[in-house]
Amino acid sequence: QLPPHDCKTNKRQPWTQQCSFSYATQCPDATWIEDFYRKKHKTKSNQNETFTGMFVGCNKGMDAVNTLRMGSGNPSINKDEWKIAMTRGGKETLGRSVCNQANLPQFELHDHNVQRNNKTSTSLSQVHCIEPMPSTYQALSQSAKQLQWDAQGLIVTHAAISKSNGTIPFPSGKAGRENMGIANCGREADGVNCVNVDMFSLDTYVQNFVHHDGPIDFLSIDVEGFDVDVILGGPSTLKRVHYLEFEYNWMGSWKNKKLSKTIRLLDETYNFTCYWPGYDGNIWRITDCWMDYYDLHFWSNVACVNRGVEQMKDVAEDMERLFLETLEKGSGLVMDVDHRGGNFQRAKTGDLQ
């Protein structure tokens, strides 16, 4: 498993991210879910199958757009076009991307996908791009309308998602800026301008904005340290979720919450098996492989598959196979910050142009 030494040594300086499960999961490459949809599109005969994704904390929308492309199989949803729209043809820059999603390859669609009827595909597919930062929301909304993707399933909503309903102050920073959230409005030293934003629990949002009772195929939560509040606000929604990704962190509400309790909740109540997702086919199971030092707070990513859903059997088996293969590679696979490699090294770029 992932070694504990760096995590214990640096536990009082979590912002350094010097911990094995932080190195391992920064900018993960979730090949298991892409492989699932690639196979699904190749064998699918029923074009009326639905797809619903949700991105709580949509930021620049790169992952949301790529997921809509992946889930719908619609080649007209193109990340390169989205990048042009978001930057007004390169005239503007967006905030720095930690993982450089704009320049990573988009989901590959083969000839059999390109020949499909785009309208049939996307009319039954939707991805909810939920973003509380006002400037980022404006850029997302304008881009979706400009490309007419709002009519093809990209639903952009200006809101914050938490465990309750109401309004909450949120920073009004540069469009696309990452690592800025609710917590910044409570610190005078940050000197940020904050505005009140509508806030919904995850269950309330789904009840009001997701107009069907079917599955949530893909749920991503990235809200700068408040991910656990989103999870706690969605007891009904989580029963419908097939695949879940969220961030663990040392700040926000996470600093007073234990990952162990959240993993146990997801396991025992919602049938999720959770992993530390890495890159280059590396992945480490958390559920039923718990290590006490995992409760130390460092920024990292968690990926969970609903093992109770028959449709996700292949994903569950693939993730477990990769986990066993990762263990066979030995404990020296990820030992310190110099061995992060993969997507994280490729992501060291400046602002999105």
What best-fitting shape do the alpha-carbon axes yield?
Answer: globular
Radius of gyration using CA atoms only: 19 Å
Q: How many angstroms does the end-to-end distance come to?
A: 39 Å
Strand line-up in the sheet with most strands:
4-3-1-8-9-12-10-11
* Helix and strand run: HHHEHHEHHEHEEEEHEHHEHEEEHHE
Overall residue-averaged pLDDT value: 87
Please count the beta strands (DSSP E, at least 2 residues each): 13
Helix-strand makeup class: alpha/beta
Strand content: 15-25%
Percentage of residues in helical conformation:
25-40%
Low-confidence stretches: 117-122, 340-353
Biggest sheet architecture: 8 strands, mixed
**Total of helices:** 14
Describe this structure in words.
With 353 residues, this protein is of the alpha/beta class. Helices cover 33% and strands 18% of the residues. The chain contains 14 helices and 13 strands. The protein has helices at residues 5-9, 20-25, 31-43, 62-72, 79-86, 111-114, 118-123, 134-146, 202-209, 227-232, 235-238, 259-270, 313-328, 342-346; strands at residues 51-56, 94-96, 125-130, 154-157, 160-162, 166-171, 194-201, 218-221, 243-248, 272-277, 283-285, 300-306, 351-352. Strands 4-3-1-8-9-12-10-11 form an eight-stranded mixed sheet, with helices on both faces. The model is unreliable at 117-122 and 340-353 (pLDDT under 50).
Question: How would you summarize what this structure contains?
Answer:
It contains 14 helices and 13 strands. The chain is α/β, with parallel strands linked by helices and 353 residues long. The protein is 33% helix and 18% strand.
